[in-house]
Structures are given as C-alpha cells and as structure tokens.
Please model this.
Amino acid sequence: MRSARWWSFPLGLFVAHRLSLMLASLISLSIDPILERPGGIAALHAYPALDALCRWDCGCFAHVAEVGYDAPIQANFWPLFPMLGRVLESAGMPLHFAFLLIANVAGLAAWLVLFRLFSDAEGEAAARWALAVYAAFPFAWFQAAGYPESLMILFTALAVWWARRDEPWAAGAALGVGILARHIAVLAGPALLVAQLRHRGWRALVNVRFLALALPFLVAGVFPLWQWFEFGDPLTFWHVREKWGESAWAGFGRLFQPDTPPQFNSYAWFALVPTLGAIALFSRKRWAELAAYGGFMMVVLWTVGAAGLGRYAASCWPAFLPVGVALERWPSLRLPVLAGLGLAQGMFFNLFAHQYPIL
Amino acid sequence: MAWASLRGVLWAWLSSRLVLAGVAWVGQTMRAGLFPLYPQPDLLCAGSCGADAFVPWVVPSLGVLLGALGVTGLVEVLHGREAARWATWVWLCVPSALVFQFSAPLAWASGALLVACWQAAEGRLWASLPALVVAVVLLPGASAGALFAAAALRRARHRLWWAPVPVLLAAAALPAFGHGLERGALPLGLVAPVGLEVRGVMRLEFLEALVLLAVLGARGLGEGDARWLSLAAMPLVVLGAVLGVPWLGRLAATGPAWALVATELEHRPLLRHASLGILATFQGMLLHFEIHRVPVL
Model:
C-alpha cells in the first residue's frame, strides 16, 4: 500500500543528495583548489558548487554538442544527451549548465520512477532503504554530474516499469530512447523479454506484441544508421573502443594485477554490493524482470567493464532492491552499510572533483 | 545500561571503525598509484602493519567507544532506546568527529565528557565528576560541557543544589590545566581573532555549528526538560565559535550537542536516511584529505 505522499521521500532524498554534493564541491575545491591534472570546464570555475560536477566525459559530450561528431572516436558518446544540451543552449542556457540541468531533472524523475517500482514490488519501507542505499552508493554522484547516466536510468526504469505493466510498446520505445542516451541501456532488453514471457507464457512468441521487442533497436538504430552514412560503418561506436586502450574491454582478469590502475581495484570492492544484490534478484519470481536486467548487466560489467565498474554499477538500479529488502529485514546492517557507502562516496567524489581518473 | 543497548553500542562502534578503516584502506591503496601531490607517510599501515601503526589506530578508537557509550546512555535516558541508536550513529558519522580517529587525546576527552553527561543524566553525581575531570584535563574546552552535565543532573535529581557542582569543578580544573595542553588536544591558546576569514574546512565546521545552534536554539524555545538541556548544550558550541573557530566543529562534536539534535530524527524517516548518508559523505571527504595530508586549514 502506497501512501498519498509517496513522492515526498524520493524528492526529499534527491534534494538532500544534490545539495550535499554541491556543498561538497564547494568545500572540496575551496580547501584544495589544485587539480591533479589540467582539465575541468573553465566556464564553471567561477561556480565552485557546480565545478566538480563537470569532469572527463562531460567535456567530451560538450565537444559533441558544440562541434558535432568530427571524428569517429566521438561515436562512443551517444547523441541524446549532447542533443538535449544543444537544444537548451540554443534556447539561451550555457551548455554546461544545460548538461547539469538535464542530468538532474532526469535524475529526479528516475528516482521517482524507481521508488514507485520498488514500492510496488516490495512495499514502501523496503523501497526507502533501497533508494537510500542507491543514493549513498560511492559512485551515485555520477548521476548528478554532466553525464547521461541519469537519462539512461530514467528510461530503463520506465521501460521496465511499463514492461511489468504489460505495456510492451511503451517499454520498447522508452528503452530505445535510453539506448540513445547510453548504449549499455540495451542490457535492459532481457527484462522486456522476460516480462512478455511472464504475462503470456510461450504464447508471447506468436503474439503481435512480441514485435515490440524490436522497437528499441528501431528507435536507437537511428544512430548506427547515421554512423553508416557518416563513417561508413554502422558499428563505429563499437570499433572505436579499441582506440581507448587496453582498459576499454578490461574484465575481471585485469583486476588486482601488479599493473592494474589502483582505482579499478577499488571499484571492484564496492561493486560487490550491487553484485550481491543482482544475485539475490534471482531468489524471487516476482523480481524476474529485474533479475534479467540486473543480472545480465553485472555479468557484462565484470566481463568487459572493469574500467567503469564503479560508475556502471551505480547505474545497475535493479540490484539495489534486494539490498533495501535486506536492510529492512536486518536493522543492524542499516547504519554500517549506509554510513560506509556514504563515506566512500565522499572520498570518490573528492577525487573526481580534483580531476583524478575516476571514470 | 541494558545488554541489548550495550550490544548495540559495540556493534555501532566496531562496524563504524571497520567501515572507516576499510574505506581508508581503499583510499590508501589508490594513493600509491594516483597521488603524487602530497607525498607523506602512510595513514594506515599499507602492507606492513606493525605495532607502531596499530597503536595509533586502536587507542583513539577506544576513546570513540567510550564516546559511543556516553551518547547511547545519555539519549537512552532522555529519549529511549531507538532514539539512542540513531543518535549514536549520527555522532559517529559527523564529519568533524573524524578527527577523533586521528587524535587520541581529543577522542578520550570526548569519550569522558559524554560519559560524564550520561552519568549525570542518570543522577550519578559521583560517577559523573571523575569523568568530567578526565575530560577537562585532556581538553580544557570540555569544561563548557559541565553546564550540560549540571542541567542533566538537575533533571535527574530534581534538586537544584547539586547542579553547580560540575560547573564549579570544571572551573577549578580549568586554570590548573589551561596551559598544560596535551599533544593533539585543542590548542585553546590560539584565540581566533574576530572576523577571521572562514575558509577551507572551517566552512564545513562552521556549517555544523550553525545546524547545532539552530536546532538547539529551536528546542531551547520549547518547554520542559528539553528546553534546559538544549540550552545547556549550547555553550560548548559557542565556545568553539569564540575561542577556536578553526576547531569549531570538533569542539562541538566532543559534547552532547549532536546527540540531542539527532533525537529529532527519531520520527522523521526521510531526515534519518538522508542525514546519515550526507554526514558520512562529508566525513569521507575529510578522510580523503586526511589520507593525502592535504593541508586543510
């Protein structure tokens, strides 16, 4: 049973989280204004409360928004986020502010959808803990930064939400838009398939609504099609990853080696939380769609995504529901888990603020 | 204190220290590869743990345990067990409370002061006084906490004439130890000039004090015991503002102010979830600076 003011928790938590990140940015950069390496966005240096929220990929998306895809290697950055930024810029808003606005409006919408999804599945108390852990996760600040993570989370959450309600066309369209934000949103695809099978059994395979599973590819296929015309290869975004160095496809085997970048190892420790959550998703039938997405995503991340394991694990939202359920069941775990993750978030956000390679 | 409460304190203390050590260890392991900026000795014993590294970590931790006992006991007497659980965690996660892990005298002073306040709230004058003496010896500024102990004692015993005893004792102890400051304790002699620019980490400590004063002030406008206890908890915070702006948050964290403020969270689930995460986030930020010896003042 959901209360009439159910939205107050995700809204309040969102406001508290974002205000604290802005304050952390302000304090962090005023304590130590030295950046570890040159970078950041000059236009934001005058606003230390926002400055730390635009590093690394934020600049790459800005380049795409301002200049366009002037080289194949840019194809790694999918177009929805820079396009939206460009739209707001043409309406008079400075681009980097537009990025932050888009990321955070999408972030708020995503948290509202997630809270509804979680509370429908397991009740409001568990949903509160799940969202609290999700917000405290050490890399949750990526959703406040000028990155498309929030858009991806919003649209995958909407896709799964609609899929569970047997609205496959809406789910497919939402997932397609999500892929245009961040290509790994495609990992939510199995959730849509599982939802169809749950609703109609094997008869789903001969139902016209099964065709809705092609919709994400039709919507998101616009970008590979454009790459085909532009660069002569519809999979340019895939092939250019080779140029990002050996870490582009680094997996579990790359971790804890003598020459492993130390931050990769630290991602692995914290990614254990959503990994355990993803495993737990398989324990209840009513979590089937979430298991299909969360489980698949974590397997892919451990296999080829070690370099972004922290950030991507923070986007694996289904995995946080079982963690919330566990915290509701075992109160003694609540505070250490929440405090420990929050503590690490402060540390990693600080590193990001100072332009350390937390990617 | 009931066994269930004691078990809760031990769990909160142990898990918070383990979490802190774990996150510090992760930060430390990254330091070698990532951070050429501030090359300093390791904070934790990365790879070669010996007694010289073990002792500096454990001794302050025991002071923190004493403080956690004090907070739990105090809030349990005033507001019950559930409120005490949250208050203890909030106190452990307060950003400025991180300094206790790196300063044994401050940790033990805080622990002693909070135990003194707890015992006073239980009405045990003769258990409270020795703890108060220890606190003032280690940290003269803790004498401002005697006001709270006095108020708590008056509440417990309903006899006003006992109340000035802790204050008088603290006042007597202060001159004797005012110049015998222990290593790492609050340098009370460094009187911050009025108008000192609030910069760096002081902004965070300043904010903490503002939150404390706002909540305690609001409660001070109320009625009953809560009013007098809240008002009595304020001098320690104010003392920091007057005498040691750079150490404002730390001085406030040594006393019962955060414990009282945290009781406001008991029936507010959103605040409870959010505040803990936020406090821990800022503590993590300070931990990062501590690990890398960034000069924060």
In short: The CA atoms of residues 281 and 287 of chain A lie 6 Å apart. Chain A touches chain B through 49 residues (CB under 8 Å). Chain A has a mean pLDDT of 92. Chain A is about 65% helix and 0% strand.
